[in-house]
Amino acid sequence: MINREKILQQAKRVLKIESEAVAGQVKHVGAEFFRCVTMINSVVESGSGRVVITGMGKSGIIARKLSAMFSSLGAPSLFVHPAEMSHGDLGMLTPSDILIVLSYSGESEELKKIIPSVKNMGTPIISMTGRKNSFITRFSDAIIDVSVKKEACPYDIVPTSSTTAMLAIGDALAIVIAGIRGFKKEDFARLHPGGLLGKKLNLKVRQLMHTGKDNPVIKQNLTVAHALDVMTKTKLGAVSVVDGRGVLAGYFTDGDLRRQLRKDRDILSRKISEVMTVRPKRIKPDDMADTAAGMIKKYNCDNLPVVDSNGRPVGIIDERDLIVAGIM
Question: Which domain holds residue 164?
Answer without folding.
Answer: 4-183
